[in-house]
Amino acid sequence: MPRIPRVQLLVTCLVDRLFPDTGMAAVRVLEKLGLEVDCPATQTCCGQPAFNAGSLDDARAMARHTIDVFSASPAPVVIPSGSCGDMVIHQYAGLLADDPVYAARAKALAARTYEFTRFLVDELGVTDVGATGTGTVAYHACCHGLRGLDVRDQPVALLDHIGGIVRTPLAEHDVCCGFGGLFAVKMADISSAMLARKLECIERCGATTIAVTDVSCAMHMAGGLHRRGSTIAVKHVADLLAPGDAS
Amino acid sequence: MNPISPLPFLRRAEDALGNAHLNSTLRRVTTRIQDSRNAGLDRLPGADDWRDHARAVRAHTLAHLDRYLDQFVTNVEALGGHVYFARTAQDAVDYVTDLAKARGLKKAVKSKSMISEEIHLNDHLERAGLAVVETDLGEWVVQLAQDHPSHVIMPIIHKSASDVADLFRRTLGATDAEVADVPAMTKLARERLRPEFLTADLGISGVNFGVADTGSICICTNEGNGRLVTTLPRVHVAMMGIERLVPDIPSLGTVLQVLARSATGQNLTVYTNVITGPRRTGEADGPEELHVVLVDNGRTKVLGSTEAEILYCIRCGACLNACPVYQQIGGHAYASVYPGPVGAVLTPALWGQQDWADLPHASSLCGACREVCPVRIDIPRMLLNLRAKGASEGRTPSYITQGLAMFRRVATHPWLFGVAGKMAALGSRAIAKNGWISRMPGPLAGWTQSRDFPAMASESFQDRWKKRTPRGHKPGETP
């Protein structure tokens, strides 16, 4: 039985506008496990794009807003993204270290914030959510989740308990796909070359679906696959744990 | 100065990406050497503890660098060596050229030294009339080709064996038999280099580590050339960055434990020499004079900055091999003597962002560099620091600063965020075909050069959530 009856979902701006199905899937999984899910309506963006570009004042403004939104309730915060999760958990405290009010609030928020798959496996102790699916699935480890939050075995454990799917290995599964936020635009040639190498591995691995823990990387790889005319899908783990749109 | 290329970073990267020969060579070699590195560390019991310990050694040394430099200098001088502290690159080259003139030295043999590349020592010595011969095989190839190293430990990672065979035919007049394969070419190099060792009167080496409490210098080479360079000529000049110290022999052991494993996967570099002073009375071998040139060239400034940690670097090259950007573009695209992730930090940290503003952005921040660094330098953290510094110096393109400032205004006003999101969704759906956008305008065109962009959803998550949980709904209720 879950020890935490209620959570807040930091849905992320990309999920909100580009992949709402993933957000709804995450909600269904959490509710199926007996949790009450809040999703504060005033949440926007965690500020990572500005932080990574070096525009720290802009990043601080967005971080303070996010801290305000999620400090209204003491409930744990779950984020279906290792990248935004790393921002809140590891970057906010440093970014706001000199802020007399928000330095402490940033630390307090970080201490009760969790990436989605880590929350399920490490906090709730759940690896089998009773999901079923079809097809062959390969796992790509998204960089910030892997190296920032140690999201490593948790998504794989969850995938391995989905009935009806076959999991297959992906060569270079822990090498960056070349997204990197604005990097993909600023350094488009290098980013495209990194993506091409990633897509070669994906096309060779025999999977029908690539599972990830960040929709940003999914968007990048899926965009490349679509350009190539490939039918391979790239899905967030939440989409595979609660397939279909039942909202 | 002798720049690698006058082109801006993105053009150099573009050239590298268009070079299929370079791409396949980089991919093959970086894959193989990463496998070796992983195996090398797997063989070391408690490898993670060794790495923590090595980091502690470097952190401690740099925190007390003034004291250890003082101790090192005192001990080298007590052994009969000379020490010169060069504040700038020019000071360093002047000292060596003046020394060569004063002693009437005519020919220098060199073992591998990144700091001599940094200060362009060869050019200056040649202009002063000395013959200079690189004796590390890779560095010799670079010299013959009038090229630049593209990796800190594998200077010719960008060249294939057939490239080197062609070079030897062209510059040395080698026969087909002499360049038939790598062993044949290595034999030819030995034959050509041996007389150079025997006739040189100046030996110039780098220094992997200076040992403060013994005044020793440690030089690691796999070819044995370092031994010849430091023993045969009558004068030995050892060039070292001021940060390359360890306190004592046990701490030298600690850093050596992780250096070769991280670099090549070897347990220890084949020739790991610890040299303590010049030849002593009654000894048969060794140079008559030992000069240690300690080079600052920006390091003191870095030591006092938020990038101080980059000086922990022990130059193993693991971060280059692990970097997916380096794997695509190689070292020359960085145009710095220090390429890859460590170079993207060290170069602008040492010499400012005036000429190097692009380097901190040449990373997807994937963190692979931090993961493999034997002394756990948080390279992504420092790339972010440098990006913030660059932004505060006005080096960020205006489309990014203005775009982010606008995004901030929107993202700190939830109602505006909702309205702007709806408008963006409408716009994106208007230009999308079957849910995908294949051409985006302005700077975003970079994205669509190789990938499509998904149209935004007609109904956002928040819209759907509102419908699902009407106002006044109590948590826990199922609407």
How would you explain this protein's 3D organization?
The complex is a heterodimer of chains A (247) and B (479). With 247 residues, chain A is α/β, with parallel strands linked by helices. Chain A folds into 2 domains: 6-123; 136-241. Chain A is built from 13 helices and 8 strands. In chain A, the strands form 2 sheets. A 4-stranded parallel sheet of chain A has the order 2-1-3-4, sandwiched between helices. In chain A, strands 6-5-7-8 form a 4-stranded parallel sheet, with helices on both faces. The radius of gyration of chain A is 18 Å and the shape is globular. The two termini of chain A are 24 Å apart. The mean pLDDT of chain A is 96. Chain B has 3 domains: 12-19 and 28-38 and 315-396, no CATH class; 44-297, 3-Layer(aba) Sandwich (Rossmann fold), CATH 3.40.50.10420; 399-468, no CATH class. Chain B is built from 22 helices and 12 strands. Chain B has helices spanning 9-17, 20-42, 47-63, 65-78, 89-103, 114-118, 121-127, 137-144, 161-172, 182-199, 225-231, 249-263, 299-303, 318-322, 324-329, 340-351, 368-372, 379-392, 398-411, 414-431, 445-448, 461-468, and strands spanning 82-86, 107-110, 131-134, 202-205, 209-211, 216-221, 235-241, 245-246, 271-275, 289-295, 436-437, 453-454. A 6-stranded parallel sheet of chain B has the order 1-10-7-4-2-3, with helices on both faces. A 4-stranded mixed sheet of chain B has the order 8-5-6-9. A two-stranded antiparallel sheet of chain B has the order 11-12. In chain B, strand 5 (209-211) and strand 6 form a beta hairpin. In chain B, helix 2 (20-42) packs across helix 12 and helix 16 packs parallel to helix 18. Chain B starts with 8 loop residues before the first helix and ends in an 11-residue tail after the last helix.
